[in-house]
Design goal:
heterodimer, A: mainly beta, 11 strands, 0% helix, B: six-stranded mixed beta sheet, five-stranded antiparallel beta sheet
Chain lengths: 118, 110
C-alpha cells in the first residue's frame, strides 16, 4: 500500500518551453501533496504544498508563476515548469499524505522526475 | 530554528557492524521524526518514524533513539548489510510539513 507514482520519470526539454510532471497516489486518497526539488548529492528542498481543491502554498523563494501546481483531485497533483531554463534542471520529487491521525504525518514519496533543460 | 542538522555526512561500515546516524533540531514544536532511505535516482522511502512521547522505537534491524531534552535523535542500523548502502535522511515535522536533514551516505563494505 501507499504507492505514489510520477510521470514522466525523466524528461529533456528545450529552454523556453514548459513541461508538466504528474504525481499520483495509486492506492490511497491524498488530501495533501508536496513537491520537492533535489540537487545532486543534496537534501530535499520543499517547494510547495498543495491541498486538493485549493491553491498551493509556496515556500519562500520559490517562484509561483514559474512552478505552477494544480491538485485537481485526491489522487493527482501536477507541477508545470513554465519557460524552463537550464538552471531549472533538477530532480523533482512529489510526496503524498493521507488524512487523519498519526498517518497524516506520513509522507509517501514518488520515484522522482529527472528534468534536463537544454 | 527550522533547521535539522544531520551527521556524519558519510559513513563507511563493515558488513555486520552497526551504523549510527545522528540528527539534532531546534524547534520544540516538531512532533514527528521520520527516517528515509534513498537509493540513487529513486525517491526516498520511509524507514521508521517516532513521536516525541517515546524514547526508542525498533523495527527489525532499524532503531530510532530519541532524546527530547537534548533535541536529538538517531538511527541505528544493526547487522549492516551491503544492501543498506544508500543515502539516509532524517526529518522533523509538525502540521505535516517535513524539514529534512542534509543526508548521510552510508557504504557497507562486504
Amino acid at each position: 500500500g501507499a504507492v505514489v507514482s510520477q510521470h514522466p520519470s525523466w524528461v529533456i526539454c528545450k529552454s523556453g518551453t514548459s513541461v508538466k510532471i504528474e504525481c499520483r497516489s495509486l492506492d490511497f486518497q491524498a488530501t495533501t501533496m508536496f513537491w520537492y526539488r533535489q540537487f545532486p548529492k543534496k537534501s530535499l528542498m520543499l517547494m510547495a504544498t498543495s491541498n486538493e481543491g485549493s491553491k498551493a502554498t509556496y515556500e519562500q523563494g520559490v517562484e509561483k508563476d514559474k512552478f505552477l501546481i494544480n491538485h485537481a483531485s485526491l489522487t493527482l497533483s501536477t507541477l508545470t515548469v513554465t519557460s524552463a531554463h537550464p538552471e531549472d534542471s533538477s530532480f523533482y520529487i512529489c510526496s503524498a499524505r493521507s488524512r487523519g491521525g498519526w498517518s497524516s504525518y506520513e509522507q509517501y514519496f514518488g520515484p522522482g522526475t529527472r528534468l534536463t533543460v537544454t | 530554528q527550522q533547521q535539522v542538522k544531520q551527521s556524519p555526512q558519510s559513513l563507511i561500515v563493515q558488513k555486520g557492524g552497526i551504523s549510527i546516524i545522528n540528527c539534532a533540531y531546534e524547534n520544540t514544536a516538531f512532533d514527528y521524526f521520520p527516517w528515509y532511505q534513498q537509493f540513487p535516482g529513486k525517491g526516498p522511502a520511509l524507514l521508521i518514524a517516532i513521536r516525541p512521547d517515546v524514547s526508542e522505537k525498533k523495527e527489525g534491524r532499524f532503531t530510532i533513539s530519541f532524546n527530547k531534552s537534548a533535541k536529538q535523535f538517531s538511527l541505528h542500523i544493526m547487522d549492516s548489510q551491503p544492501g543498506d548502502s544508500a543515502t539516509y535522511f532524517c526529518a522533523a515535522g509538525n502540521t505535516g510539513k517535513l524539514i529534512f536533514g542534509q543526508g548521510t551516505t552510508l557504504q557497507v563494505k562486504p
